[in-house]
């Protein structure tokens, strides 16, 4: 539970016991194993090599239990046990949560935990066995992890500016601010490279909001222009205008899991994810 929750305090909250009780349980386990399992990392904890080995073993046991429950769950083949998945806020709301809802309806004995965060460290979550799968735009290049492309997401540029033509000039772009996730985010610059090939927009001024729907809210309020998934923009067209409407950029979504046999619940959820058009 300390691994899944990300720390002793959060684990105590989930278990409805004191933090000292969690600490004592971990210390007792470490005493039996003769190995330290956690070290302090900032305000939280991180797994030691021995802790990572134990976490992998526990994940394998959980997957085996899930497979057994699937086989013994009755003639209808319903799944039982626990499933933990994570995604960015946009991917989670648009594609993961509808699939989770369908899975939950079909398998009422299955308990699902969903983490939505645009700052996810997917590799760390999977390696520490805090989640069973991650949906995101970044493929993982770590030993022991596997990412598969599951589809393309279309992005378009929009804003509220009535004084701009459909294809604003580079000078107009530099007078206003783009809204991006973080300074290293290339979504807007890569999209504008398709709109204005060969144009240097290195001086583009930008606001930053580390949440996709926060970027949308600031764009709707007139705080700047943004490049967002078309499916996010579509309900707000009328308030928002598309700029360079003939241009769309594509980004790939990946389903990342630990290597090895996929747990039945993870496989079932993956099959339910349908990318919105």
What are its keywords?
277 residues; alpha/beta; Arc Repressor Mutant, subunit A; D-Maltodextrin-Binding Protein, domain 2; seven-stranded mixed sheet; two-stranded antiparallel sheet; 11 helices; 11 strands
Low-confidence stretches: 71-75
Order of helices and strands: HHHEEHEHEHEEHEHEHEHEEH
Radius of gyration: 22 Å
Q: Which percent bin holds the helix content?
A: 40-55%
Counting helices, strands and paired strands, the structural category is: alpha/beta
Dominant shape: elongated
Mean of residue pLDDT values: 85
Q: How does this model look, in words?
A:
The chain has 277 residues and is α/β, with parallel strands linked by helices. Among the domains are: 1-47, Winged helix-like DNA-binding domain superfamily/Winged helix DNA-binding domain (Arc Repressor Mutant, subunit A, Orthogonal Bundle), CATH 1.10.10.10; 153-252, Periplasmic binding protein-like II (D-Maltodextrin-Binding Protein, domain 2). 40% of the residues lie in helices and 25% in strands. The protein has 11 helices and 11 strands. The strands form 3 sheets. Strands 3, 4, 5, 6, 9, 10 and 11 form a 7-stranded mixed sheet that branches. The protein has a two-stranded antiparallel ribbon with strand order 1-2. It has a two-stranded parallel sheet with strand order 7-8. α8 links the parallel β7 (177-180) and β8. It is elongated, with a radius of gyration of 22 Å.
């Amino acid at each position: 539970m300390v691994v899944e929750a990300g720390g002793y305090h959060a684990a105590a909250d989930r278990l409805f016991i004191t933090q000292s009780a969690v600490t004592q349980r971990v210390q007792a386990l470490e005493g039996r194993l003769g190995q330290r399992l956690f070290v302090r990392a900032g305000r939280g904890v991180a797994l030691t090599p021995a802790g990572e080995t134990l976490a992998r073993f526990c994940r394998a046991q959980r997957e085996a239990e899930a497979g057994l429950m699937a086989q013994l769950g009755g003639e209808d083949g319903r799944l039982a046990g626990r499933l933990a998945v994570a995604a960015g806020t946009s991917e989670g709301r648009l594609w993961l949560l509808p699939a989770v809802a369908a899975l939950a309806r079909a398998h009422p004995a299955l308990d699902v935990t969903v983490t939505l965060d645009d700052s996810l460290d997917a590799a760390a979550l999977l390696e520490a066995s805090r989640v069973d799968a991650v949906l995101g735009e970044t493929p993982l290049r770590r030993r022991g992890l596997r990412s598969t492309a599951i589809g393309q997401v279309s992005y378009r540029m929009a804003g509220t500016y009535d004084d701009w033509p459909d294809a604003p000039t580079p000078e107009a772009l530099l007078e206003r601010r783009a809204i991006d996730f973080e300074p290293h985010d290339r979504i807007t610059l890569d999209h504008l490279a398709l709109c204005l090939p060969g144009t240097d927009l290195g001086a583009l001024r930008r606001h930053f909001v580390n949440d996709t729907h926060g970027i949308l809210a600031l764009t709707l309020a007139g705080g700047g222009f943004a490049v967002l998934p078309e499916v996010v923009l579509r309900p707000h067209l009328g308030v928002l205008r598309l700029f360079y409407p003939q241009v769309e950029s594509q980004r790939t979504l990946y389903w990342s899991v630990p290597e090895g046999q996929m747990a039945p619940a993870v496989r079932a959820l993956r099959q339910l994810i349908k990318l919105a058009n």
